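INFO batch 0412 | record 1 of 1 | parsing
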Amino acid sequence: MEEINIGAGLMSIAFWGFLAAVVVGGMWYSIREKEVQQETLRRLIESGQPIDETLADRFMAINRGNDHLDRDLRVGGMICLPISIGLAVFGVILGTQYEEALMPLVGVGVLLAFVSIGLLVAARVASPPRQQRD
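INFO prediction complete | emitting tokens
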């Protein structure tokens, strides 16, 4: 019968708990930041102060989200593609010493290459029409 390693289980729980805390913390910070910006705009309106168009556009752009989705997808694809090639090459090099490492690393490299190609295609699809870019 295998010996149960409690330390490894606690470490994995701590790792996933930390990841969950980081994700939830980031979401909470983003939501809280938008609430503060909306409250500022609400107080300006209630006080009767005039709101110029640039200030209103800035608040609306922050709440709308990212206007450069195509650029962000393209950057993600351009970062992932060389990493995928590097993983495949690393698998080939490591496979000379440990044959069982060759196929998994090459497979991960190919999978990441497909992800990066998908990001590049999504960037092309998400790019605004040429009239809006100019």
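INFO post-check: The mean pLDDT is 84.
INFO record closed
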